[in-house]
Amino acid sequence: MARSTPGTCVFCSIVAGATSADVVFEDDLHLAFLDVSPVFPGHVLVVPKRHAVTLADLEAHEIAPLFTRVRAIGIAVEAALDAQGTFVALNQKVSQSVPHLHVHVVPRTKGDGLRGFFWPRKKYATPEEKSAIRDKIAAAIASG
To answer: What does residue 23 show for φ and ψ, rounded to 5 degrees?
Structure first.
């Protein structure tokens, strides 16, 4: 995936007002707009206005405001569309169609046809494999 820069990023262009979008919310830090290719009608993208490609590119103090906004938009999407819930997702690098951090808020209803195809589930081959992976992740977290 190519890493866009603020000058070449379509979401930065939307934030700047140079590219049109169906905006549902804006504050000083975030913009939320309808996805042009929604999973279901009402599929909203929430982006930080400051260009960041992945969650790791955000400053620590930027994370809570982003997810506070995502939470509020999820509640609003449910209420506005009489949805039974939402699917909230954030792709990082792999399957990230636009290299600008964006959180998907997708309205859901029982029987809407969206299934676990996003994540084909697999079991660990052995208990030892599971333990080894757990230990690698825990060590990476500990090393900060």
So the answer is: -75, 130
Q: What is the pLDDT of residues 66-120, one digit of tens each?
A: 999 999 999 999 999 999 999 999 998 888 889 999 999 999 999 998 876 666 6
Backbone region of residue 113 per phi and psi (left: phi > 0; alpha: psi in -120 to 50; beta: other values)? left
State pLDDT tens for residues 43-66.
999 999 999 999 999 999 999 999
Question: Domain containing 64 — which CATH number?
Answer: 3.30.428.10
Burial (CB count <10 Å: 0-12, 13-18, 19+), residue 85: middle
Q: 101 is in which domain, residue-wise? A: 10-119
Nearest Cα residue to 44 out of 18, 74, 67: 74
Q: What is the pTM of this model?
A: 0.86
User: Could you tell me if residue 129 is inside a domain?
Assistant: no
DSSP per residue, 24-78: EEE-SSEEEEE-SS-SSTT-EEEEESS--SSGGGS-HHHHHHHHHHHHHHHHHHH
Q: Which amino acid is at 23?
A: V
For the annotated catalytic residues, the residue numbers are 102
